[in-house]
Write a structure and sequence with these properties.
- By secondary structure, the protein is an alpha+beta fold.
- About 35% of the residues lie in helices and about 25% in strands.
- The chain contains 11 helices and 18 strands.
- The strands form 5 sheets. An 8-stranded mixed β-sheet has the order 5-4-12-13-14-11-15-18. Strands 2-6-3 form a 3-stranded antiparallel β-sheet. Strands 10-17-16 form a 3-stranded mixed β-sheet, covered by helices on one side.
- β8 and β9 form a beta hairpin.
- α1 packs across α7 and α7 runs antiparallel to α8.
- It starts with 10 loop residues before the first strand and ends with a helix.
- Bound molecules: flavin-adenine dinucleotide.
- The site of flavin-adenine dinucleotide has 26 residues, from β2, β11 and α7.
């Protein structure tokens, strides 16, 4: 976006070459509106899988049933996509725009030369100074002060072949036992290196129980998953090595001040949360769009970053709060929260207007974030 607006962009990345890290995520109408503006949405949909519904059961009780179609008047949907697909999409666009990409550059700090900011690298070298450094280094960024907290729970993730039966290719499905056990199956389409459609399979796990899980062996764990959710058998059959599952730990953090002189933090570097509401990548895209808008309209870099933060802050704080509120309902040791979820919230949530509110929430549309950014879900459909 910044390159297209005539800025001279350089990109620094710690890895030498692209690596397939992690499994899947969900693009929501918010992030999709940005991809549509970039002309990348059609390709994202081609690589991923359209998701129309989120569905979850606990002991045969339906406790989650959100259809994007509940957003009357807006034809919304999500896209389940492998991280490698989303990466390839953005990486190819950056290459096509002839943006210089400096790989193998591990950043460990920055400093000022006059009004401009330079980067410090782990090998002791420094970059030349820039008018603006955009910190998109993720939740453990070395360019911002440490803040927030690691969450007790994370999840094991694996990318597996989409099973021939037992699952709907347009539904993110989950099973729970209280809030301490959760399994999920997210369709993620066909990633670049795979010839067949895949699923992201996840199993919630407390970080301090990872060693216990490893020691317990695969067979015992598979039996436990199969008991909770028998349809997972064809997925479990594909797992014969614990290394197929990657443990992802979640952190909840929000920088109070996402800017400094010649520096702005965007995406997870500004705010990160558990993926319970599936918003992080979408929020990162909205932040990037807001920054591009700020730079286009403001007279100075200071003014531009202040505009970008102003355009995003309310939505960021709202979703950080919502995610904080909902995460323990699905991932915690609480007995009360899942009890209320299963018996009260679950049934009520299937009635209007709860259906609408939930669909707006998972779509990322609560707080109307697209309007100040001149974005719209209509363009999503047009593309
Ligand atoms: C298991 C899991 C599931 C998720 N599911 C969803 C979902 O369904 N929907 C959703 O929207 N979000 C989801 N998220 C959140 C989403 O992945 C993040 O919000 C999103 O990736 C943030 O993007 P980012 O560009 O800010 O940071 P990142 O994706 O973390 O990218 C940071 C980049 O900076 C590079 N980097 C890091 N440190 C350095 C350094 N020191 N020097 C140089 N380079 C460096 C990294 O290699 C990487 O390329 C999920 C997260 C997890 C962990």
């Amino acid at each position: 976006m910044l390159q297209r607006a005539g800025n001279n962009v350089s990109l620094f990345e710690r890895f030498e070459s692209p690596q397939p890290i992690g499994s899947g995520l969900m693009l929501q109408p918010t992030g999709m509106a940005v991809l549509a503006e970039l002309g990348l949405l059609k390709r994202a949909l081609g690589m991923g899988s359209r998701v129309d519904r989120l569905f979850g059961k606990a002991n045969e009780r339906i406790v989650l049933d959100v259809s994007y179609s509940a957003l009357r008047g807006q034809q919304a949907f999500g896209i389940g996509i492998h991280r490698a697909s989303l990466f390839a999409l953005l990486f190819n666009a950056a290459k096509a725009a002839a943006i210089p990409i400096h790989t193998g550059r591990s950043i460990n700090g920055s400093g000022l030369k006059g009004n401009r900011r330079f980067l410090r690298f782990a090998d002791g070298e420094q970059s030349s100074p820039f008018d603006l450094v955009v910190d998109a280094l993720g939740t453990r960024t070395p360019l911002a002060p440490a803040t927030g907290r690691e969450l007790a729970y994370g999840a094991l993730w694996a990318s597996l072949d989409w099973p021939a039966s037992g699952f709907d290719p347009h539904t993110l499905e989950q099973r729970y036992e209280r809030a301490s056990i959760m399994a999920g199956v997210l369709p993620i389409g066909t990633p670049p290196a795979a010839g067949e459609p895949q699923t992201a399979f996840f199993w919630s796990l407390r970080a301090d129980r990872l060693a216990e899980w490893q020691a317990g062996g695969l067979a015992a764990w598979k039996a436990r998953v199969a008991k909770l959710w028998p349809s997972c058998a064809p997925l479990l059959d594909q797992i014969d090595d614990p290394a197929q599952l990657t443990f992802a730990r979640y952190a909840h953090r929000t920088l109070a001040r996402p800017t400094e002189q010649a520096l702005i933090h965007i995406g997870d570097a500004w705010h990160s949360a558990s993926p319970q509401l599936g918003q992080g990548a979408n929020m990162a895209l909205l932040d990037a769009w807001a920054l591009a808008m700020g730079l286009e309209s403001a007279a100075t870099v200071d003014e531009a970053v202040a505009t970008a933060v102003r355009l995003r802050r309310r939505h960021v704080l709202l979703y950080q709060w919502l995610t904080n509120l909902f995460t323990p309902v699905y991932q915690s040791d609480s007995r009360l929260l899942p009890f209320v979820r299963d018996r009260l919230v679950g049934p009520v949530s299937r009635l209007w207007p709860a259906t609408f509110i939930q669909a707006a929430m998972v779509s990322g549309l609560v707080g109307n974030p697209l309007k100040p950014l001149n974005l719209s879900t209509d363009k999503v459909l047009a593309e």
